[in-house]
Design goal:
The protein has helices at 32-41, 54-57, 63-72, 86-94, 104-108, 111-120, 153-163, 184-191, 207-216, 227-230, 236-245; strands at residues 5-13, 16-21, 24-30, 47-51, 77-80, 99-102, 125-134, 137-142, 147-152, 167-172, 198-201, 222-225. By secondary structure, it is of the alpha/beta class. The protein has a single domain (5-245), classed as Aldolase class I (TIM Barrel, Alpha-Beta Barrel), CATH 3.20.20.70. The protein has an 8-stranded parallel barrel, surrounded by 6 helices. Helix 4 links the parallel strand 5 and strand 6. It is globular and about 45 Å long. It starts with a strand and ends in a 9-residue tail after the last helix.
Length: 254
């Protein structure tokens, strides 16, 4: 069985890591540089860095902080926020990112996925999708969950993978920050229609939530979380030990 990845997420606003509930009520957490180095040193498999207001503010991603984070860590780094062009891909990769996450920029220009995949390779392109139930339908939201696009999420994700996205990050707005478990229904629906890796995001509150995720949905490749790691509610090394004891393989420090 392929090892499952554990990925902390840094939601960065005005140079600080923040966290909210259902994408709202953001509160200050820490320095992204300090937190990124901590996770790199303490068992995280990868790190995700989102400049969460770049798209809604209509500006470019903060590259000075990104460059400093990249220089301090020794694990793969995925970066997103305000990615609207191949120039943005190029700029972020030159700052030290290994993969680039597109969300609102791909909604505005779906060809960006294909163009980036051709230039940089599928493995570099991550399609991040913020999804909320609207009238019983999985619906795509843009601009950090602020704008209802009306797009059917399953159709959008399937098309994104076909265009060349090498990985899908599924962010459930319904479960974000609630800490009652991952959105298994939404994740199951997505993992059944794509063959590329799917990363679960939104809802983790305890170690058992990760065990349930990987047991119930073996096709899901990784679990992503923020606040439970940021506030020390779950330690990554303890999480990986618990997964190992439950027959779920991860990369562990021996």
């Amino acid at each position: 069985m392929i090892t499952k990845r554990i990925i902390p997420c840094l939601d960065v606003k005005a140079g600080r890591v923040v966290k909210g509930v259902n994408f709202e009520g953001l509160s200050d957490v820490s320095s992204p540089v300090e937190l990124g180095k901590y996770y790199s040193d303490n068992g995280a498999d990868e790190l995700v860095f989102y400049d969460i207001t770049a798209s809604s503010d209509g500006r470019r991603l903060f590259t000075d902080i990104l460059t400093e984070v990249a220089s301090k860590i020794f694990i793969p780094l995925t970066v997103g926020g305000g990615i609207n062009s191949l120039d943005d891909f190029d700029r972020v990769l030159k700052c030290g990112a290994d993969k680039v996450s597109v969300n609102s920029g791909a909604i505005k220009n779906p060809n960006l996925i294909e163009e980036a995949a051709k230039r940089y390779g599928d493995q570099c392109v991550v399609l991040s999708v913020d999804v909320k139930r609207v009238a019983g339908k999985f619906t795509v939201f843009a601009k950090g969950g602020r704008e209802n696009t009306g797009i059917d999420a399953l159709e959008w994700i399937k098309a994104g993978a076909e265009r060349g996205a090498g990985e899908i990050v599924l962010n459930s707005i319904d479960t974000d920050g609630v800490k009652r478990g991952f959105d298994l229904e939404m994740l199951r629906a997505v993992s059944e229609i794509v063959s590329v890796p799917v990363i679960a995001s939104g809802g983790a509150g305890k170690i058992d939530d990760f065990i349930t995720l990987f047991r119930e949905l073996p096709k899901v490749d990784a679990g992503l979380a923020a606040s439970i790691f940021h506030f020390g509610e779950v330690k990554i090394n303890e999480l990986k030990e618990a997964l190992y004891r439950n027959g779920i393989p991860t990369r562990r420090k021996i």
